Amino acid sequence: MSDARDPTEFDPIVPNTGEEYEPLEVFPESGSFDLRPGADSCYKCSTCDTNCPVAEVDDDFPGPKFQGPEQWRLKQTDDDYVIDSSISECSNCLRCDTSCPSGVNLAQMHNTARGEYVENQVPKFSVKYIRNRILANYRTSAYFASMLPRTANFFMNFGPVRWAMEKVLHVPSEREFPEFATQTFRQWWAERGGAKVHSDEKRIAYFHGCYSNYNTPQVAKALVRIYEYFGYEVMVPEQKCSGTPMFANGMLDDARRHAETNVESLTAAIEDGADIVASCTSCSMALRNEYPELFDIDGIDDLAAHTYDAVEYLRIHTDVRQELEQAEVSGELAEEFAYHAPCHARSQGLERQAIELFRNLDGVEIEDVGDSCSGISGTYGWKSEKYEKSMEIGSEMFEHMEDSGGTTGMTECPTCASQMEHGTGYDIRHPLELIEAALID
Amino acid sequence: MASTPHVLVIGGGSTGIGIARDLAMRDLDVTLVEQGNLTHGTTGRMHGLLHSGGRYAVSDQASAKECIQENRVLRDIASHCVEMTGGMFVKRPEDTEEYFEKKLEGCRECGIPAEVISGEEARKREPHLAKDIDKAIAVPDGAIDPFRLVVANAASAEQHGARIETHSPVTDLLIEDGEVVGVEVKHKSGPGIRVHGTEGGTEEIRADYVVNASGAWAGQIGEMADVDIEVRPSKGVMTIMNIRQVDTVINRCRPKGDADIVVPHETTAILGTTDEEVEDPEDYPEEQWEVDLMIDTLKELVPMLEEARTIRSFWGVRPLYEPPDVGSEDPTDITRDFFLLDHEERDDLPGMTSIVGGKFTTYRLMAEKISDHVCEQFDIERECRTADEPLPGSEDFSVLRDYMEEFGLRSPIGRRSVERLGSRADEVLKTNEPNPVICECEGVTRAEVQDAIKQSGSDLNAVRIRTRASMGNCQGGMCVHRLASELHDTSVDGDTFDEAIAREAWDELLQERWKGQRHALWGEQLSQAMLNYALHATTQNRDNDPADGEPVDFAAFDAGGDHVGDASGTDVAADGGETDGY
Questions:
Q1: Which of B84, B242, B479 to mutate to test the interface with A (most CBs of A within 10 A)?
Q2: What's the ipTM?
Q3: For B324, which of A14, A49, B110, B433 is 20 to 30 Å away at the CA?
């Protein structure tokens, strides 16, 4: 059967926060957090700092050890203690969280610090706040853009418009906006009449997120076809943004509002016997890790326990690897792929899944371009003041991609994909697209 | 007799230093000698509670009244040493209603502001309190940093002309014609600001009057003049938690008992304590059950303590005293009041008074009374000004600054630095030199460390008590070598600290840090100790000191090969090694 270890057995070190410690219930009325107990697990070893891609390129950035356990321990709960502004330089890649050998919950610390910083210290009428709010609420922009996708595609990359956006909103004109699909995934799904396969035993609910709905429906369609190929009934429940760009911009209220819808609709699907799969690794990470760390919503732990990355789930529950070993790819996707593992896939332990899956697939080559961060970190690279830093972080990945055999890239993360494309001009594909090409087309 | 009397004070704890400041401010000539660092004795080994008086409101109302009075004075004159956290006496279901009422009544009788709050309100203020707390009495307890307070008193005394000699134990009392006329001290390391490695020899310091404020050591000083001072030293353990589980002082509302207080102190919380009589204030057992008792008992008030990280434990010895005719069996029954023993009246030995008993919160009041007594000996009538004049660092200041704009410091680091330095912040932190963080746990920068070295010389323990460097969760694992590096080549008053001096100070501080951690070697702090050990062994050769006190011949190391990797990377393999072809 599966060649992946059952991830449910994975038992990370639980931070020592005390039996009675419930960070979200600590100050329910003031809405503030006390994460000081999390600092008990830190031994100051600096492994987090050495894994931080921002600290590597920015000498002024004090690094995750400071942002996390040190800042929380030095801070006190009274309002006079403020969060240091350097939290806004953190790209939210969460490599620190993954690398900590002693279970310090750096993701929770950074997300909470960022939330507190934005809530209390950033003026709500500042250009950066407004820009960040727009970037964080990509789903809203995408929703409107997809109503007139061709017009949107023209204007979003139209020189004078981009010049104005750079001047007014500090959105770097170097970046190309992603194209909006002329038909969203959900429109396609409705037109198709929903699921083609019905099953009481094998059922998944697809969390497509915003990107594969509005921008890359081909990935979402591939997912549907693959799961149906393996006999699964696919459900596409109501959903909003997973919240990742909101966490990354400290917009925790926005994130909570979206999370409430997601938790309600996805837990209903779980009650119908489905597991949740996502094709974007940042979405799956949000549902699995950030939700229970930041919000206290009924069913949120249940949702976290039932959520998987789409490829991971296939590796656990189907014979996808064996089938791929027998398969051959020809045509458009018979390529040499330069594969980049997104940081958020890494933090779920998934950084080798594409390599392991495709290295014996006839007709394609796949090469891992290394463990560096792409530098985009969602909305991070979409800010003028971060653009250079973002490209510097990504330079190692670009270099390794240039050195690889082909001119096609592969990754699970849509924003990493846009960075890969931006830095190299390569065409970037999702692993699901290749599985579809190998097994179905 | 000289026109200005010269008074010698023995003991650099809160009492002695308070007396030195008071007398110096009354224009007397003052010399203070201390066997170790300032705060070497009991002062440096207390839980840092600024009493509201609530703890004594039932058993000892005279002390309670003094406490609330001095509590108000210290908030004013020592604002940079005090954090007004507030405090609570919490009642668990098994604690009696009767005692709760007595406590409340007692507070009111003593003029201590006291407010009864519900268990729910108590948990709202302190979310980590146990869920079954019935109710609590809120009182104005606070936290006070004894190190900072004593250092500020010493600085003030010196500004008023006093001479302060640390690391100078008294080896004998000078007695001529049946009168104490001075002391003989042994300078462990040279007169003036401490310098390591220079034996200073002995010095006879003659004085017109001697004040023995050596606390638990008072009996030993008395023996030098064959007078009997029945100090009954009593030990108490204190356990330091890595973080503050509570932000207000939590007292258990029940009659005397062990392990009944949690004091938030800077970044940490201190659990206390026990009360057990010992023979020798310098040699007594430190036992694990005492530490276990702290956690096991106090988790009834704050359950998360059971799982939380402790970073060290230490024991203090109370210098308790009671007149020989009282004869209490249990040290907890001995009064916390202080006694002035005029040896002329008591033992027919003029020239010396001993001060015994008392407590930290009322140190200033005690010093005032002793200073009055000393002045009486010389028929001097000068007003005590210590209750009105702020200590250096406690002049008007605000901690709310733009730390990055003003000092180039990240906000919690700037905040902590300004809190510690008080009104001296600008003087110390506004520097043109690079100012990196030296101690990351406590947010101590190089400028603050250099300022402390300027004050205390080559003693890194003295730097520690001034700055809190090495007092955080790694207990010096990541910063002691940096502190030693700051010491090296620094000059103070013409003395330049060479490698051997820096190395000795480094060794001493590591030893001191290790001493307390031995009582916290489980869970996280054990892992920390192992990491510290591995780092120090592999990067500093601390598992096998090569220098043995001798300077290292750095010139004997070669400068490395001529070859450096070429930027194009052509001769360097991708794994960082050299290519085969090279």
A1: B242
A2: 0.89
A3: B110
